[in-house]
Design a protein that fits this description.
The chain is mostly helical. Helix content is 76%, strand content 0%.
Length: 124
């Protein structure tokens, strides 16, 4: 197993950064009148995911890292909800949203796994 020296070594951070790029590309297709509404909300939430992973990893304690992983997970759920909402509003098609939703599911699993591993290490 590779040693994690900083947050940039985390697979979940890399996946979250990739998600940011994909979501920003996707939000370019939303209607212009959503620029300050749904588009802005989605973009803020998706940026929060890797940002909280990075911030949490950079803090001194596992407890604080876990707190930031929970925040990242919450932001990820927010992005998922907003993408589904955009689809239900007929702003996006299933072919546009499904790859993003798949990425979100993968990142959720990684966050869960990392959280579980940190908790196990702390409880030793």
């Amino acid at each position: 197993m590779t040693e994690i020296r900083n947050y940039k070594d985390l697979r979940v951070w890399k996946a979250a950064m990739d998600l940011v790029v994909e979501v920003y590309d996707l939000t370019k297709t939303l209607p212009g009148d959503e620029r300050y509404g749904l588009t802005s909300q989605i973009q803020r939430a998706v940026v929060s995911v890797p940002a909280n992973i990075a911030e949490g990893h950079s803090l001194a304690t596992p407890k604080l890292f876990l707190k930031h992983l929970r925040i990242a997970s919450g932001s990820l759920a927010e992005v998922e909800t907003q993408i589904v909402l955009a689809s239900r509003l007929d702003y996006l098609t299933t072919s546009q949203t499904q790859p993003i939703l798949n990425q979100i599911t993968d990142i959720q699993k990684m966050l869960f796994g990392l959280t579980k591993a940190i908790k196990a290490k702390v409880l030793k």
